[in-house]
Amino acid sequence: MTATAPLTTSTRPSAVRLGLRANLAQFALLVAVNALVGGMLGQERTVLPLLADRTFHLSAYTAALTYIVAFGATKAVTNFFAGALSDQYGRKPVLVAGWLLALPVPLLLIWAPTWGWVVFANVLLGVNQGLTWSTTVIMKIDLVGPARRGLAMGFNEAAGYLAVAATAMGTGAIAAHWGLRPQPFLLGIAYAALGLGLSVLAVRETREHARAEAALHPAPANPGHHGALTTGQVARTTSLTDRALSSASWAGMVNNLNDALAWGVFPLLFAAHGLSVARIGLLAALYPAVWGLGQILTGWWSDRIGRKHLITAGMLVQAVAIGLVAAGTTFPVWALAQVLLGAGTALVYPTLLAVIGDVAHPAWRARAVGVYRLWRDGGFAVGALLAGALADAYGVTTAIWTVAALTAVAGVVVAVRMYETRPRRAEPDGV
């Protein structure tokens, strides 16, 4: 990589147009790339919890969930650096680097002789997801400008999580027919190769779009924020001092804490009640499918009615859904719970990213996205450790109820502390 000038508000590139219509081809390509990013995660959602139980015979929940801890911790840290690196070197080099690191992941999962190999594969997967998903988020925000941030994030997250759902269902069906390894992970090999090829050959750099927006809007979104913040100041503002940014960071962390529960604990709970691998795969797919489809609507909706109330409602719906999983014992009840969990997450996920885009000035927005995603994806590690420890000590039902309570608390925090961030008069983008 060759370092280039960092993003500043003083640079105003010519011949750069903001807006969804003006950048539709690249936007659509980035949607497709993020679907492949989601597919890399989806290859694990059904199969890995069952591998831990049936192939590696890990009886303790804490031990079985170490791969989620490894994934979440590395993804969270990588998210932070992805924003700063994309400002310094450009978005495309960071995206390509993320795909290069994805190539060995499915091979390690196929050949892993011990659980340590699986954990190492998830370290690489966490770095891959942090670099690629963060960068596609930043690039879409760059392209569309201020008027369609919610819609852009809806499409981005919908593509990623619909791919998670489709791949989780596909790998579940493959595993039910051919076994847990190696066939389910052949999808991951194809995703990594295609994602790398598209990123190298077809994706174009978008940092100039952020510079153009910064030049057109030198005043920061929040009057208390100036455009020339250091990375440390960005981290402090996003994590602590700004009520909207910090509330979004907390809600994002709790959201992915309960996603870690859904990923690592729910399949084991369903298996303990005698569900088949195919039915577990269906439940594992139902939640991200509703989540993914719903985000197309909720991202657009947040552009119309605002962010705060959708986030509050989404966290509370998630809490109800998680409690329903704890209370349920049958496939229909769990299917309803997965639908509700997906709906609640759809209300929250793109809207939180839109909050970051609303408040953060273009000059430091990529770094703010990185800090937010540091907190949000740190929830994977926190959730896996908390759920595993509680499940081992008090039983899996207690662990699930605890996460439901934390999710409800997060909704209350947003309701009390966050201010509304949707721009009052969003500028037209030609759509």
TrEMBL record:
It is found in: Cell membrane. The chain crosses the membrane at residues 20-41, 61-82, 94-111, 117-138, 159-179, 185-203, 284-302, 309-327, 333-356, 377-394, 400-419. Keywords: Cell membrane, Membrane, Transmembrane, Transmembrane helix, Transport. Pfam families: MFS_1. It is a multi-pass membrane protein. PROSITE patterns: MFS (PS50850), SUGAR_TRANSPORT_1 (PS00216). Residues 23-422 form the Major facilitator superfamily (MFS) profile domain. InterPro entries: MFS, MFS_dom, MFS_trans_sf, MFS_Transporters, Sugar_transporter_CS. The keyword Transmembrane applies. This is MFS transporter. It comes from Kitasatospora putterlickiae. The lineage of its organism: Bacteria, Bacillati, Actinomycetota, Actinomycetes, Kitasatosporales.
